[in-house]
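check this:
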Amino acid sequence: MDVLMPQLGETVAEGKITKWFKAAGDAVKPGDNLFEIETDKVSVEVPAIAAGVLAEIRVPEGEVAPVGAVVAIISDLSTAAARPAAAAQKISPTPARAATAAPGRAQPQRPIKLDPFREVRTPERNFGPARLPSGRVATPLARRLAADSGIDLAQVAPSGPGGRIAARDVQAAIAQAAPGLAVAVSPAPRGAERVKALYEAGSYEEVPLDAMRRTIATRLIEAKQTTPHFYLTAEVAIERLLAVREEINATAGTVAGNPAYKISVNDFAIKALALALQRVPAANAVWAEDRLLRFTHSDIGVAVAIDGGLITPIVRKAESKSLIEIAREMKDLAERARARRLKPQEYQGGASAVSNLGMYGVREFAAIINPPHATILAIGAAERRPVETADGGVRFESRMSVTLSCDHRVVDGALGAELLAAFKRFIEAPVGMMV
């Protein structure tokens, strides 16, 4: 039985195997964890779905394989018993069967079951690790680049660990064969060399991009190039909110010596934005190419910083949840986000989001919209600021700046201003969020 690289989310095209829990020759049964994969957003343990013996591991730890690629083979017990013991222990780097055809030749598509995740269709070409007739091994990305550009891997000089042919080796071969093609296929190496030439050798450290950072870069460029942003900023008084927050937290009680809950300013912001979207339903929508999708509930994304980037888990139906429920849910989501243990359905979707840099002392900023969202609210630091009183005097009170980024295709200026005003009313009269 083929063990396949599963699909984890609509936009995930490949995964990196970070750990094998079983070795070649080990017996497995349904539910046993086989391997752990890392995508640009999460890490997931993939279980076996059949009993047998792990006959081959085709994608070792540290390698990347596309969705649908064969990463291992499970033999049934009767077949495994007939195999020589030495062969059963072998970890084979040979390519998946779908990749044995000549590069570039389309393979017939057939539906394959990637239980327990979902059903997808076999890719036209499977780029698992491949051993060439020369004995060298090419990485999946190197094979993909070579197939797309017509480069013969046998003519490529390797520079990877253990004599492997890496993507950069194929890119170098492309550059020698056709410089114009090299720009079209992969401009990054030329760009990197051009930037490096500006600095003294040895004065910097090169940090390779991981999957998350590459995806963030791609999505941010896409968002700024394709989404017509505009920005609205308001100053919000939070004296009453801070007083209510302090009173709620003072009544929390303890569990195992720790507070049962702790409401943050961010929790108030999530609730206030959710309620504002209910008050201004035309803004509770996203752009869907030839139409708008307008939502019944307010699903609010919350930007969470993690190692290597950020992720935006979603608080579903936030308008109907109490501040305590939101605080507890966000604590759980943030912890699992930092451990890369979120499920795709926990960070996909939503119509708007909150990004808070106030805890870093940032007074004001404008966030980039996370497609397909139509808005994102950037929250700055709370500060004591001078305010003119009705009699012409001056007093100090706690205030913070908030900036709403809007997709002009969905939310025009007046609608965005209405949404921001509704948010401001809820924040400045926080008791209204608890009734």
Q: What stands out?
A: Residues 84-126, 179-189 have pLDDT under 50 and may be disordered. The chain has eleven helices and 25 strands. The first strand starts at residue 2 and ends at 4.
